[in-house]
Amino acid sequence: MTNRKLILENGIVFEGQAFGSDLASDGEVVFTTGMTGYQETLSDPSFAGQIVTMTYPLIGNYGINRDDFETIDPAIKGFVVRELAQTPSNFRCDTTLDEFFKMKKIPGIEGIDTRKLTRLIREMGSIKATLTAAGEEVDVEKVVAKLKSTTFPTNQVEQVSTKTPYPSPGRGKKVVLIDFGMKHGILRELNKRDCDVVVVPYNMPAEEILALYPDGIMLSNGPGDPKDVPEAIETIKNLIGKVPIFGICLGHQLFALACGADSFKLKFGHRGANHPVKELKTGRTELTSQNHGYAVDPASLEGTDLEVTHLALNDGTIEGLKHKEYPVFTVQYHPEASPGPEDSNHLFDEFIELMNVDTRKEQHHA
Amino acid sequence: MPKRQDIKTILVIGSGPIVIGQAAEFDYAGTQACLSLKEEGYRVILINSNPATIMTDTQIADKVYIEPITLEFVSRIIRKERPDAVLPTLGGQTGLNMAIELHESGILDELNIEILGTKLDAINKAEDRDLFRNLMYELGVPVPESDIIHNLEEAHAFVEKIGYPVIVRPAFTLGGTGGGICYNDQDLNETVTSGLKYSPVTQCLLEKSIAGFKEIEYEVMRDSKDNAIVVCNMENVDPVGIHTGDSIVVAPSQTLSDREYHMLRNVSLKIIRALKIEGGCNVQLALDPHSFNYYIIEVNPRVSRSSALASKATGYPIAKLAAKIAVGLTLDEMMNPVTGKTYACFEPALDYVVAKIPRWPFDKFENAKRNLGTQMKATGEVMAIGRNFEEAMLKAVRSLETGHKHIEMKNPEELSDQWIEKRIRKAGDERLFFLGEALRRGVTIETIHDWSQIDLFFLNKFKNIVDYETVLKDYPHDKAVLRQAKRIGFADETVAKLWNTTESAIYDFRKENGIIPVYKMVDTCAAEFESETPYFYGTYEDENESIKSERESVIVLGSGPIRIGQGVEFDYATVHSVWAIKEAGYEAIIINSNPETVSTDFSISDKLYFEPLTIEDVMHIIDLEQPKGVVVQFGGQTAINLADKLEARGVKILGTSLDAIDRAESRDRFEEALHEIGIPQPMGKTATSAEEAIVIAKRIGFPVLVRPSYVLGGRAMEIVYNEEELQYYMEHAVEASPEHPVLVDRYLTGTEIEVDAICDGENVLIPGIMEHIERAGVHSGDSIAVYPPQQLSQKHIDTLTDYTTRLAKGLEIKGLMNIQYVISDDEVYVIEVNPRASRTVPFLSKITNLPMANIATKAILGQSIVEQGYPTGLAPIQQGVYVKVPVFSFAKLRRVDITLGPEMKSTGEVMGKDSTLEKALYKGLVAAGMDIKDHGSVLMTVADKDKEEAIALARRFTNIGYSILATPGTAKAIEEAGLKASVVDKIGSNGPTLLDVIQNGGAQLIVNTLTKGKQPARDGFRIRRESVENGVPCLTSLDTAEAMLRVIESMTFTAEEMPKQEVRG
């Protein structure tokens, strides 16, 4: 195995062994605490542009299978693990993580003290970093200087969103799913409920969307800062009140911005499968899967039509919103799970129910 | 939801004595629960018969009752204390069964007492096989094809339908007692017959065997608001077919994808919600390795051994929170005690691997069946934490203290390939080590998988370990190779062997080259949040998180896994020592490897290191912490055995010095010391060969007591009556050598006395003297001990006090000591001195109200007994009579001879206390699980040498209306004495034999003394085992029988006819 370094913007260097692609890569280093689900994680488009650290030390144990992808081409910039499994074992295993990364040209590093790295990120916040090319000797100071002067692109949504609309047919409710970097899980949950889904690019204008005559609109998850996709905010403004809307993650943040609220960057984000979220109406707490670096600013809700429905139990950040007047609700977490707990899977049923109620209402008016 | 205000007083039911399947984990759970309830302001009443527990310390609950956990006694306490509620879910199966009995007796309804935690209905649904299956059908959760059977015919009918193999699980039993896998009719007949006997409801579940499936466990919690979480999931390395308590287990699961993980998580949460459990619950599942098919195996609606393991593996204190949930608090309003900053309603994220390996008693029971199956046999377990699987596993291996430091057998060259295959195919206690040998011989992991069904993932990991041995061999003294070897968990001792050098040379080489471990925190959240839990494990990484504090510290070594001879008593002493160190103003640091115990609860000490108790692992911590010294006298032989190596490395041993320890334990030096002090001991000498032993024995005269030096719990100790037996013993039981001499002592018959004492260097405090019911020759741990002595004259008490004081001073004891004496022919002899805390510390501490381990620790730290405000000399005798009765787990261990002798066999103990010896004995025997009948039949079969004494007992049995059954020889002797005895034929005769009588319930009590030889084939052995299998008390010492008789006599009125009047003519 050849050596590889992970060099942080602040000059701290981790030396480990390379796996996957031999190429070098830059990105923002983040960590996620999920103990299973590395395949879903590495293929989650919300991680676009990021180097993902798995806090659980043994990764690759059950290999890579054909089923558990959240996208076809992963958008992560690199993967950091304590130990990569050499010989995975699971009946669905089709290839190893190492082989898969070689094919997808994603660099990985193993053998480093990932807990130390996690603690650093916890203290300093998410940080820019370089994964060096396998076996390459680099001048750390130069790398750090380059990292400091680099601004990462802010068009991650454009990178991961579909370029053209496509259908995923069903016989039930007609749903337009706006792809900001959609996890397949969202589509799977809608299809499971027999929805007739059309997935559309992030920048499709509202009138084109409405011309598909949807029963409801789904705003997907996606990478980066919601403020980097102003066109989507405009689109959503024009959709509110027309049909029921359900938003997840970035979709949730975009909806908040569309209603006049503000968002801010979290120090090191929420990434993992064990985040408790409290529903204010029932007082019930659910364990949720989360992956976000930004959140909606509670102070900015004043004067908007937004009502908080869910809060993070631990840090009190906003986890769910609804529109006071129109049938729109959004959550910061991932009810589609994959990876993570399926406690809030029922939100998709609630979306279907919302569309049912809305259709009945329309018929009544007609 | 706020805690409930409508209840004030809560009765907590403990789990009673330690038996296989129910051990120290319930002391941990119970202690946490009681403290947790007190913290919320409730009045806590505790009942537990086990004195060797922290939970029965009077400061843990508002009122502590050390009484038998039987309907009779619990009801009496309930009537006296009038609790508002009962919390049974922290006392294991004992607690749950008691709750059901209480309910059925009607007392709970009568007094309007509520059951907290898990409702009765849920207990029944989870425990009753039929109701459980129905619930699973309702929920649409798959369970293996099965049937409830009530007799053998039904069992055969089921097998005809689905075929062999099938698993038999008796209902409402503990640790799978009486169950097993059956491959044929013979297995089925045996297992079902015994299973039905063990089930209190005469009911067994027969189910399709799904052996070979992955066995996965989920520890789940739920509150009254229906919030439900998974604390931890675990994967058994051994697939389905071996009781989870006997399986090697890792946490979290290793081979499950996210889909599989959450599929099983969902169903676990569905079940706890359906059962409406408010507290903790354990769900065991079987997952097909080749599909998404799964089955529910079992649900335990209470905290369990697995939840203790999960608590230690994650840091999440399940029992503590379960108790709070039981009184109405909810997960979303309680803080996570580990981080102190986040809420308890979350699922811990691990960033390490945890391995658990059970500790089995087969080293003590050579004849026991070593096969593992659905009936648990382990007495304890070890846990280890590492940053990879190999590291965690190898750390766990060296924590076991079975002599293994690596996955290898002791003399591998003596093992044939066939034998290795056999021992891998059929799971046993040493499978892991045979596995290592197979890999070393080049057997492929695929072949081993075929033999064992162990997942290839794990086999690959074991192969990594074995492969790295070759790398080490090829690169002697290569730093990079050594570092990698340490990263995958190799012990210095293993590396030393491969590099042909010594363990300490490797240690020094590593230190020179900076290859030392760092310590990472167990924080429940994979470092996502800052936490201040002082709970650490060692690993070879970059960043060290354990920072030495400014305060002066003292390290206490724990006692490792629970085994026969070194039970929970030593954890009790360890915990008290830690508390005393804290009180004395030092930082108290503990090192231990046992996940079941109170000592490894991170809230006990200032710092907890969950590490193996080997010199290497302990020294790393000492290097980092630079403590004032190390306390070794509370951690049993585990800690004592490290003393010389620690001192050799310049570490200060606090308390009795190494030299003094050696003087007490090395036979020749001890003899010299006794001679100096002027105290007699039985004649004896050490032998380093068989020839020498025979010479010594002939000189001092048979019978002699033989045993290896430096052992615990009388391992391999025997009384031999002639040269032939001695020869056999020397050849088979021990390996005598100059380094490991064998002690040969004159065997003195007489009353055995046990004394514990504390010495501060100047003064000696003797909390109490205990007298044993059984004469010398029965191991003190297996004897019934009585406080205060009932038959000793003041003269002997004075002598014992004088000897003990002189011994403590003469041997330069600082801290605790334990002395065994025998009084033979009116003369007091010293048999043994243990320069450390003994098994009787908790028993005596509780009786005398003298916190012995605490006083001893403070004395060690320099505060004299007088300065501490305690008296010196023999403490005043307490009111009442207290007995310590041993408890055995023979029902779990097939083929083990139950005869009491010099080698310890009990797994736990209970205390009986009352105003008279008879009453105290009654309570003790009942608490120990013996069924005392005031009428019935006693079956007597005794050795010739015991016949005279047996006749005296037979006469007394006759007087209270017991009928006597006896084998021809014994019957003849009894009849000759003018008593009636029905003859029962010996085994193998035509008519109804002994075995029939026992099997048909014809005897309520059996008195059997040992005939010569230890061959299992002998009749005596069959009788004793048959009594165990049928749950009939079998007493193998006439002294125990006499005690039992006294109890029965005191329970009954005599039935004597009027004396005939002589009519004078």
From TrEMBL, chain A:
Its EC number is 6.3.5.5. The active site is at residues 249, 334, 336. The lineage of its organism: Bacteria, Bacillati, Bacillota, Bacilli, Bacillales. This is Carbamoyl phosphate synthase small chain. Keywords: Amino-acid biosynthesis, Arginine biosynthesis, ATP-binding, Glutamine amidotransferase, Ligase, Nucleotide-binding, Pyrimidine biosynthesis. Composed of two chains; the small (or glutamine) chain promotes the hydrolysis of glutamine to ammonia, which is used by the large (or ammonia) chain to synthesize carbamoyl phosphate. Tetramer of heterodimers (alpha,beta)4. Signal peptide: none annotated. It is an enzyme of class 6 (ligase). L-glutamine binds at residues 46, 222, 224, 250, 253, 291, 293-294. Belongs to the CarA family. Residues 2-132 form the Carbamoyl-phosphate synthase small subunit N-terminal domain. Transmembrane segments: none annotated. It comes from Viridibacillus arvi. It catalyses: hydrogencarbonate + L-glutamine + 2 ATP + H2O = carbamoyl phosphate + L-glutamate + 2 ADP + phosphate + 2 H(+); L-glutamine + H2O = L-glutamate + NH4(+). Pathway: Amino-acid biosynthesis; L-arginine biosynthesis; carbamoyl phosphate from bicarbonate: step 1/1; Pyrimidine metabolism; UMP biosynthesis via de novo pathway; (S)-dihydroorotate from bicarbonate: step 1/3. It comes from the Bacteria.
TrEMBL record, chain B:
Residues 133-327, 671-861 form the ATP-grasp domain. Its EC number is 6.3.4.16, 6.3.5.5. GO terms for molecular function: ATP binding; carbamoyl-phosphate synthase (ammonia) activity; carbamoyl-phosphate synthase (glutamine-hydrolyzing) activity; metal ion binding. InterPro entries: ATP-grasp, ATP_grasp_subdomain_1, CarbamoylP_synth_lsu_oligo_sf, CPAse_ATP-bd, CPSase_dom, CPSase_lsu, CPSase_lsu_oligo, CPSase_preATP-grasp. It catalyses: hydrogencarbonate + NH4(+) + 2 ATP = carbamoyl phosphate + 2 ADP + phosphate + 2 H(+); hydrogencarbonate + L-glutamine + 2 ATP + H2O = carbamoyl phosphate + L-glutamate + 2 ADP + phosphate + 2 H(+). ATP 1 binds at residues 129, 169, 175-176, 208, 210, 215, 241-243, 284, 298. Residues 1-401 are annotated as: Carboxyphosphate synthetic domain. Residues 930-1065 form the MGS-like domain. ATP 2 binds at residues 707, 746, 748, 752, 777-780, 820, 832. Mg(2+) 3 binds at residues 820, 832. Mn(2+) 2 binds at residues 298, 300. Mn(2+) 1 binds at residues 284, 298. Pathway: Amino-acid biosynthesis; L-arginine biosynthesis; carbamoyl phosphate from bicarbonate: step 1/1; Pyrimidine metabolism; UMP biosynthesis via de novo pathway; (S)-dihydroorotate from bicarbonate: step 1/3. Mg(2+) 2 binds at residues 298, 300. Mg(2+) 4 binds at residues 832, 834. Mn(2+) 3 binds at residues 820, 832. SMART domains: CPSase_L_D3, MGS. Mg(2+) 1 binds at residues 284, 298. Mn(2+) 4 binds at residues 832, 834. GO terms for biological process: 'de novo' UMP biosynthetic process; glutamine metabolic process; L-arginine biosynthetic process. Belongs to the CarB family. The large subunit is composed of 2 ATP-grasp domains that are involved in binding the 2 ATP molecules needed for carbamoyl phosphate synthesis. The N-terminal ATP-grasp domain (referred to as the carboxyphosphate synthetic component) catalyzes the ATP-dependent phosphorylation of hydrogencarbonate to carboxyphosphate and the subsequent nucleophilic attack by ammonia to form a carbamate intermediate. Composed of two chains; the small (or glutamine) chain promotes the hydrolysis of glutamine to ammonia, which is used by the large (or ammonia) chain to synthesize carbamoyl phosphate. Tetramer of heterodimers (alpha,beta)4. Large subunit of the glutamine-dependent carbamoyl phosphate synthetase (CPSase). CPSase catalyzes the formation of carbamoyl phosphate from the ammonia moiety of glutamine, carbonate, and phosphate donated by ATP, constituting the first step of 2 biosynthetic pathways, one leading to arginine and/or urea and the other to pyrimidine nucleotides. This is Carbamoyl phosphate synthase large chain. The gene is carB.
